[in-house]
Amino acid sequence: MLAPQPAIAGSAQAIQRPKQSKLPSVLGILGMLLVLGVGVVGAAYFFFVIKPRSEKRPVITRHEPTPQPTIKSTQNQETTPSDLGNTNTAGTEVPPYSPPSNAVQFVNSKKNLDGKLAEHYVDFSFYYPKSWQEDPKAGVPGARNFVKVERGLPPNYTLENFAVGLYASAGSVENDRAAFHALAEKLSSQFAESIGNYHKTSEGETKVGLYEGYEFRFEGLSQQTDKGQFKIWGRAIFLPPVDGGKNGVTLLMLTTSLAPELKSVDDVGEKGDLPMLLQSFRFGKQ
Q1: Cα separation, 168 vs 123, whole angstroms
Q2: 115 in helix, strand or coil?
Q3: What are the structural domains, with CATH classification, of the chain?
Q4: In this predicted structure, what is the pLDDT of residue 108?
Q5: Is the pTM value of this prediction over 0.90?
Q6: What local confidence, expressed as pLDDT, does residue 245 receive?
Q7: How would you class 180 by CB atoms within 10 Å of its CB: exposed for 0-12, middle for 13-18, buried for 19 or more?
Q8: Are 262 and 271 in contact (CB under 8 A)?
Q9: In what order do the strands lie in the sheet containing 282-283?
């Protein structure tokens, strides 16, 4: 008997920038509803030239956690990996993030949400640079993401962006872990239909600060633009619920080689501005 599969809301739609530019918007994470086990799959849309799939290449299994913050212990209690996979372990707390002076905090709110986002609402927060732009179409009635922010290049190019969508648990840590690969395959297939030369480069366990999750990374090519054809790199992370909650989140990051400090898919969330967003991400009320 198959375990129930969780639902996630990711996103893969290009941002519509001002119409005065004839250039297509190259990236953006705006809304793809993906519900596994029910058979409802939202389409992924990009303004990219669809290119023939290159010869299938191997996918590397990753076991590289991102740096995690120091844990403040309030009890003499050992923390095990299995504990972290389920909740914020009792007796520990995630230390507060010390933002730089150029940071803005986003705090999730249920106030303007409806539909699946309201049903699967979860409290979380993170910081992002003041120079980034928040998408006004996220976190409002009819939206498919709680939030989306972006670092752009005029007139309408994306350097890095970050979206947070829903993740509904399958009911237990074991069921979530069993469903991760299927979730990754489904979401990856949506990107594969829209990104030229798409290739999933790696898949496996990861961490966002203290929180254990599961991710896959991918790469592809843009359409031809006045800046030529450039590389697209992405990363999707599923973070299960913490502290006994029912809802987690899906973190989606898309970047391009137009960002001078980014050289490969391994740099997504590790270089540029995205590390601030991941390092400052916290579940819970603020």
Answers
A1: 13
A2: helix
A3: 7-283 (3.40.1000.10)
A4: 98
A5: no
A6: 81
A7: buried
A8: yes
A9: 103-107, 124-129, 282-283
260 preceded by a cis bond (ω within 30 of 0): no
Residue 56, number of CB atoms within 10 A of its CB: 8
The fraction of the chain above a pLDDT of 90, given in percent, is 60
pLDDT-derived band of residue 286, with 50, 70 and 90 as boundaries?
Answer: confident
Contact criterion met (CB below 8 Å) for 31 and 161: no
Q: Which residues contact 29 (CB under 8 A, 6 or more apart)?
A: 10, 11, 12, 13, 145, 148, 161, 162, 163, 252, 253, 254
Tell me the residue type at 181.
H
Residues 225 and 23: beta-carbon distance below 8 Å = yes
Tokens standing for 252? 């989606």
In the structure encoding, which two tokens stand for residue 103, read together? Answer: 């940071």
Is 202 within 8 Å of 60 (Cβ atoms)? Answer: yes
CA angle 281, 43, 141 (to 5 degrees): 55
Model confidence at 47: pLDDT above 70? no
- Give Cβ neighbours of residue 39 (< 8 Å, ≥ 6 apart): none
pLDDT of residue 186 exceeding 80, the answer is: yes
Average pLDDT over residues 246-251: 94
In single-letter form, the type of residue at position 10 comes to: G
Rounded Cα distance, 1 and 263, in Å = 44
Q: Rounded to an integer, what is the distance from CA 67 to the centroid of its chain?
A: 17
Q: How far is Cα 174 from Cα 234, in angstroms, rounded to an integer?
A: 27
What residues have CB less than 8 Å from 122, skipping those under 6 apart? Answer: 108, 166, 241, 245, 247, 248, 249, 283
